[in-house]
Amino acid sequence: LGIADVDTTGTDLTIGIADSCCSPPKDCEVEYETKVDKFDHHGQDPYGHGTRVTRIITKMLPDADYQFYRIVGNRREGACQHPALLQAMYTAWMNGVDILNVSGGYEATENRELPSEREITKFADHGLTTVSALGNYIKDVVTEPTFPAKHPDVIGVSGYEPYCNSDKDNNGGEKPHQGYTFGSKSANNTSTADNNYCGYGSCQDGVCTASEECSLTETTWDGNVTPSDNSASPDVYAPVRYPVENGNRVTRKSGTSYSAPLVVATIGAALDDAKQAGRDPSPKELQIQLKKTGTPLTADDGYKPNAANLLTALKPDDLSVPSLEEE
Asked: How far apart are CA 162 and CA 180, in angstroms?
């Protein structure tokens, strides 16, 4: 996603996380405040969802300031509710958050959406960039893109899967489709031992030798919700799997919840550098340029964000931003 090509750690950013946690994990040493806590869980995250989302963003933007809005409880207490979501977004706007991550939402009827449509547009017009997962398909439960991601002023994210393809096996023979990869780690081999990384000939003690015989095939995730029309198509796609290392094994969690924070980190890396260069692009600029500067998936329709390309578009003094209708 081009994040490694942008030399920034979030120093000038404030990131909001509206999820199931009210603080970062103990091993995430970041500056933070708890702004909204709708559930009394004594500072813990019994669901674990928000903790995983937080780890993704703080790993790449460790020097940002963070604000937490717990609007999701445990599994028994249910998912995100409309009033809590709006409270979190309003509070984030009032407290100067640059980017708000919402890795959740709900299907909403037109009547329920109308009050929020105006409010979210106001938040965006006054500087709040919101990134939200469009949702995971669950038969008879979630079949359409969820709110707030479907709002036109919110950056809606769906997932893609990068698969590792290697032309040669270890014996020099032809090797077919290898399987899902965690960035560089193949999921077909769930060991965390050395020498099983896609795109590299060998890895020893964390030092890897690149291989020209391995490439990635990027396809949209089959668990994405599919809009019944084009009114809520994703702005961008991002990797949908979250790897959890347990001893010498790797397990996988899936969902667009883990795609959205990667987009937050991508935007944040470019925005932080742009702000240090004297630019302060609006949420609409960020949304438009995110799509314009994305790179196409290698084996499917759609684009993934690229932080380096986005930064290049944001930094020139003569940047001219077209309207969405002109795209």
From this structure: 6
